[in-house]
Amino acid sequence: MPLLEIKNMTQRFGGLQAVSDFNISIEEGQLLALIGPNGAGKTTVFNLTSGFYQPTEGTIFFDGKPTAGLKPHQVTAMGIARTFQNIRLWHDMTVLDNIRISQHYRMGYNIFDAFLRTKRYREQERSIDNTAWEMLEAMSLKEYAYERPKNLPYGLQRRVEIARAMSIRPKLLLLDEPAAGLNSADVEGLIKLIRWIHTEFDITIWMIEHQMKVVMSLCEHIKVIDFGSTIADGTPEEIQANPVVIKAYLGDDTI
Amino acid sequence: MQKHTFTIALFLSCLGLVGLAQYNWLDQYILTVIMFMGINIILSSSLNIINGYMGEFACGHAGFMCVGAYVSSVLSVAIFAKDKVFGAPMLPPDLAWIGFPAIILAGALVAALTGLIVALPSFKTRGDYLAIITIAANYMVISAIENMDIIGGPRGFQGMKRVINSMYDVADIPWMLIWIIIGTLFSIFLIRRFVTSTYGKGIIAISQDEVAAEIMSINTNKMKISAFMLSAGLAGLAGGLFAHVYGYVNPQSFSIMKSTECMVMVYLGGMGSLSGSVLSAIIFTVLIEALRFIIPEVDSLMHSIGILPDSYEISQVWKWVIIPMILFFLMQFRPEGIFGNRELPDSFPKLRKFYSFK
After folding, report:
1. pLDDT at A247 over 90
2. Which residues of chain B make contact with A92, given a CB cutoff of 8 A?
3. Once rounded to an integer, what is the mean pLDDT over residues A67-95?
4. Which of A41, B104, B199, B218 could join B213 in a cystine, given CB atoms 3.0 to 4.6 angstroms apart?
5. Average of pLDDT values for B124-153?
6. Where are the beta strands (DSSP E) in A71-203?
7. C-alpha distances in angstroms, A109 versus A73, A97, A122, B190, B238?
8. Which domains are delineated in chain B?
9. A88 touching chain B per CB within 8 A
10. B58 touches chain A (CB under 8 A)
């Protein structure tokens, strides 16, 4: 059974067909990429997968269960975490709090436990704390625990955002242009980080990326979309040689 | 031991206050000011949950206060006092001092439910649009009560003094002061525990990036309901206490003007700072009372040096020129308020040694 299966997904915004007839089947443990020129509908596919939009047509199955009608926080609780193209951390609280608060999906206590500081509350908070510190340790962010993300360099903010997504212990991690805005040294670090996360946490990663260096060195499978439709599907080598892809990116030279 | 210094000092000063009131060492006027200080602390810190921590702009806080004030007043008069409308007391008035906290909490509960008027639209509406809804909620409450003739309508409702007096018949201690101290400490306690828990910090995440909050597994709708109900409930608690201090309530005393006072206190203290809210409520109450004396002084001074013609007098209304002016200069020179989103020990780290509550 595939981990994520999207069948005939179509999304229309008024008259605009942002995604049309999108199909994908992701097996557990895969590391694959979704690429395409600007405005091709890549982020829309991610927004649909994470429950932010409901598809106009088609179905999404995660772990064998349909995600239709679920709110984004419920989809996340099922095990899909994501990062954003433009970093969306909570910039005015500490890195530690950023990770702690993302544990809401397993919040085993309610508001009255918080008022009364019951045993359940104390146990949960302790376990949340432990998870957060473990994650900071694993992602070598421990020394920044009490920093505010807005004061960190861009590359580190990316790392914090990935750590925050990972603290949900997802089965599937969606990375929306993780290398955007990074310099070449940071990109090297990011490639290592993603490869390390993929093996260390044994999760499935699906990413959108523009930088071919990242995609070609990490992904075993690439899907290319343009104007909402799938135009190619294959290994990095096949994609690089595919004339349709080259045409989509570079344009047609016959005027 | 040192860790508890703050808590012990707090309790001792509350006890001292009650003692001073008991032996009439405090002027009745000063006592009233202190009681209003407590009520204002509850109001500003509860509004801070929404306007500070959650980053919304709620400007109908007095509406919820009104619900709490009316519900608890009607209950206490109906249960513990002889009244033209409600007839003989349901329970012996001697028991009023036991039933009073339950009555105040009932008012708070109804106010919390009224908070849903704002909480439910807040799922889809944010910012300016939600602000308009909060103003509408404020007016809805006031107008609804003005149209209920059985509880006095626009004439207001009274009779709570009889309930308070029956408490004094049981024991001659400063009852209202005690209830207000308990109410204030209770509110601060709840808010502090709420905003320091990982659960409650969800609302801070919502204020900083709601999309990220929803994606990172926070049930934003549930958090909004919690925050609005807690805020409205505590405003209702403040309203109940307010009604019993005055012994009289009138829908117009919970107008948009009162809501504005609450907002001035929040922005003066700093959004998202509990100690800021407490401090600004104290400063604000003292300031309003001080102006009551300063304005006539300024008036006579100006007349004696001949700046003002004899026909013109500086009236108390000038208070409402001076107080908004504070807000004006605050926004120009220190828009984050006295404390910003920091707490007292963040600004004075040495204080950490003296307290340990969480």
Report:
1. no
2. 204, 208, 341
3. 93
4. B218
5. 93
6. 80-82, 172-176
7. 17, 18, 10, 16, 28
8. 14-354 (1.10.3470)
9. yes
10. no
